[in-house]
Automatic annotation (TrEMBL):
UniProt cross-references to Pfam families, sorted A to Z: TPP_enzyme_C, TPP_enzyme_N
Lineage, top ranks: unclassified sequences, metagenomes, ecological metagenomes
Key words of the record: Magnesium, Manganese, Metal-binding, Thiamine pyrophosphate, Transferase
Transmembrane segments: none
Identification of the protein by name: Unannotated protein
């Protein structure tokens, strides 16, 4: 036990070691610039929970409480994505920490600074059969940039700022009993925030072939800003494909559709492709890359996370461009294919998933937009008309369907409102995320095709037992489920109803169930659309 004195009142307060450790860490969180902390309630993390609550009441941090650990971690991930700051997530001991793992993996592959703080029993109780005690040290393995097992108050978090700014990190805190503390907040006085480390500037040069080169921008942009990439592309004067067409109005429209034709890929054969980030969505785009003669990759993660990635040349920063392309005929070929595809797509009025995604993308006037994995993100890439004015987010690190509602809620927290497009299985997978989402302004469009729609577009679509092991119809009343979390739930089944919901202002949590045709009909529509664009 340690004695602290409040000199003003000449009063002696006995503070236990767990409280001192918790307070020391919270002070250091403030120093390294943490503004938001997401707390998963528990007993062993009581010292930290109390210290964080006191800090939040003093106005130095914002404390969010989420009862489901998996949801809490993805909510923190969403805040970190949108704020571009370190965000901490806090849990008790035992299985609680394991539920953070999916979000940590997503943060690792996306280089998001998610700081996990886990409470633990003292080391002497490990492997003794003590309740809710397991080996939490190093639980995330190589998925974190830094980890530590801490029991002493002299631990210096600020010494590891470079590491915790670069990706997810984990600090395991040994809290011994007693766990409760006094209500004093004088320990928060004179906290100083320090700046995050500046990114190291690397200047490299890229030389591309003047004939038949194209730039392909992955959805996560390798962490670069939209403006940085626009400047790079403007310097090259090359045609470019964007997995996220809502950030780049000059991108090639519907490339993933018309490149599904082998004839079109031959016509637009590339001598060189310059890839920014990862291309993870379309087989047609990856086929174009595979058929090219020279591949350039621009992605900082190749130095750390994706260290075994191969290409003819690799850059860890956006390089300077020696000379812009003067091959106007090549650019005009791509622009002609894009324009012709846009004419075909604009003439389709079928009530189908791809066209629904197009309608939502065109009608939104409020940023940002969160897009879940599987079909929604692919439909936007394929069918949306390129535009600007919307900030988009997606979990493309590992492209899981877990935690999508929670991530969208975190983004809405930062932006004071957001829209999300989520498939029905992803929606069911993160239903507990609606508890957190009730506290923010978030409209969720749920694409309800009663199961795993993406599998109907993949080679396994016709295997025996498809519905049981891939299609997995959920047969759930999504309206009834959603209404248990919010009264603002509607179902739409035509464009008039859909456009009405798109146009509404977002004032709280609302859910729009979008009923779409059977999954096999949607797959047929996709194949038919690609066939219409088979020879441009």
């Amino acid at each position: 036990m340690v004695e602290e004195s409040n000199h003003e009142n000449v009063e002696v307060v006995i503070v236990n070691n767990s409280t001192l450790l918790a307070r020391s860490l919270v002070c250091q969180l403030i120093e390294v610039g943490v503004k938001d902390v997401v707390l998963s309630p528990g007993s062993r993390n009581a010292p930290l929970s109390i210290a964080l609550y006191q800090a939040s009441k003093s106005g130095v941090i914002t404390l969010h409480v989420s009862i489901d650990e998996r949801s809490a971690a993805f909510f923190a991930l969403g805040i970190a994505k949108a704020s571009k700051r370190i965000v901490s997530v806090v849990c008790t001991s035992g299985t609680a920490l394991a539920n953070y793992h999916p979000a940590v993996l997503e943060a690792h592959h996306s280089a998001i600074p998610l700081l996990v703080l886990s409470a633990d029993r003292p080391a002497r109780l490990r492997k003794t059969g003590s309740n809710q005690t397991t080996d939490q040290v190093g639980i995330f393995g190589s998925a974190v940039t830094f980890s530590a097992d801490v029991s002493e108050i002299n631990f210096d978090l600020t010494a590891h700022l470079d590491a915790i700014s670069a990706g997810p990190s984990h600090i395991n805190l040994q809290f011994d009993e007693p766990l409760l503390s006094d209500e004093s907040t004088h320990w928060l006085a004179n906290q100083i925030e320090i700046k995050a480390p500046a990114k190291r500037a690397i200047t490299e040069e890229i030389t591309f072939k003047e004939e038949h080169a194209v730039v392909i921008v992955g959805h996560d942009r390798a962490g670069f800003s939209v403006s940085e990439i626009k400047d790079f592309i403007a310097a090259t004067q090359l045609p470019f494909i964007a997995e996220d067409p809502l950030s780049f109005p000059d991108a090639q429209a519907h490339a993933s559709l018309y490149l599904g034709s082998e004839e079109n890929r031959k016509k637009l054969h590339c001598k060189q492709v310059i890839i920014i980030g990862r291309t993870t969505l379309s087989r047609s785009i990856n086929a174009l890359i595979a058929e090219s003669e020279f591949i350039s990759v621009i992605d900082p993660r190749t130095a750390t996370i994706d260290s075994l990635r191969t290409a003819d040349e690799i850059f860890t920063s956006l390089p300077s461009v020696k000379k812009k392309s003067e091959d106007n005929e090549w650019l005009e070929m791509w622009n002609a294919a894009s324009a012709e595809s846009e004419k075909v797509i604009a003439g389709i009025d079928d009530w189908q998933e791809g066209m629904i995604a197009r309608a939502i993308a065109a009608g939104l006037s409020e940023a940002p937009l969160y897009i879940s994995s599987s079909r929604p993100i692919r439909d936007l890439e394929a069918f949306a008309k390129p535009r600007s004015g919307i900030t988009t987010y997606a979990n493309r690190g590992l492209a899981g369907i877990d935690g999508n509602i929670s991530t969208a809620a975190g983004i809405a927290q930062v932006h004071s409102g957001a829209t999300a497009i989520i498939g029905d299985l992803a929606f069911l997978h993160d239903m507990s995320g609606l508890l957190t989402a009730r506290k923010v302004k978030l409209r969720i469009f749920v694409i309800d095709n009663n199961g795993g729609g993406i599998f109907s577009t993949l080679p396994q679509a016709n295997v025996a037992g498809f519905e049981d092991i891939f299609g997995t119809p959920q047969d759930v009343n999504l309206m009834a489920l959603a209404k248990s979390f919010t009264s603002d739930v509607v179902e739409v089944s035509n464009y008039q109803e859909l456009n009405r919901e798109i146009a509404k202002p977002i004032s709280a949590l609302s859910v729009v169930i979008v009923k779409v045709p059977e999954r096999n009909k949607s797959a047929e529509f996709l194949r038919g659309t690609i066939a219409k664009l088979a020879s441009l």
